[in-house]
Amino acid sequence: MAAPTKVLMLHGHSQNASIFSKRLGALRKSMGKDIEMVFVDGPIVLLPVDFDGASSLAALGASEANTTSSDPSTTPRAWWKSNPERTIAHGLEDSILLLRDILQRDRYDGVFGFSQGAAMAALLAALLERPHSYSPFLIDGEAPHPPFKFCVAVSGFKAPGYLSAETFGTSYSTPTLHVLGRNDVIVIEERSKGLLDLSQNKRLEEHDGGHFVPSKANWRGFFRNYLTDPLGVVPSPEPRTVLQPAPDD
């Protein structure tokens, strides 16, 4: 019996592993026994001072989070903190070392991230392609894990800062499914384009919603089929509108 496909799941900014897992409850249940989703916490705990009011917890997909609660399942977390200009990623190095240790302990077929987690997922995929570009990522001079077979980036963007720029270079080649919401006002299309342009082996799918992982039945089936066979022919979850050429006058 074949081992299940194991997927590393990276939550968005202000979420945590528990919140992300619960929000994807219907998607998780639809995976059956053939796909195992492993949710992990970002190392950075967010405090009230980290929220400037520009984006509410609800808008970020983390209405369950509580910055004043002692309950770890509601603690908002992140993979890094940005400056207002989004040019620096404070704490990104700590997240990379945390993920290095997680990858050393087990084997994952791919990675699936949402929002900031999607940016982290793509960066991690690129880093596994060229692990020697950041020596602290190495263990005894070697990569902690083979390159991923696939990456799923929902509402993704390119992580800011020098480490991201050096890791990606001009492109990365891990097969990546990019999923964007046409009405996403948190990660707008222009911001996502920065990651899309770096992705050599990309597939783009769009949904009509906003800043969330689509989980209607058609999308659940699509994600299940994609994660099972990311290089196979998997039909789009939503029919595309084909514009017919105008008849000649």
Describe, in plain words, how this protein is organized in 3D:
This protein is α/β, with parallel strands linked by helices and about 250 residues long. The chain is built from seven helices and ten strands. It has helices spanning about 15-25, 25-30, 90-105, 115-130, 160-170, 190-195, 215-230; strands at about 5-10, 35-40, 45, 75-80, 80, 90, 110-115, 150-155, 175-180, 200-205. The chain has a six-stranded parallel beta sheet, sandwiched between helices. α5 (about 160-170) links the parallel β8 (about 150-155) and β9. The longest helix is centred in the middle third of the chain and has 14 residues, at about 90-105. It starts with a strand and ends in a 21-residue tail after the last helix. Residues about 240-245 have low confidence and may be disordered.
The number of helical segments is 7
Main β-sheet, spatial strand arrangement: 2-1-7-8-9-10
Shape descriptor: globular
What structural category do the secondary elements indicate?
alpha/beta
Cα distance spanning the termini:
62 Å
Number of strands: 10
Low-confidence stretches: 241-246
Q: Largest sheet, described in full?
A: 6 strands, parallel
**What would you report as the Rg, rounded to the nearest angstrom?**
18 Å
β-strand percent reads 15-25%
The average pLDDT score comes to 92
What is the helical fraction, as a range of percent? 25-40%
The helix/strand order is: EHHEEEEEHEHEHEHEH
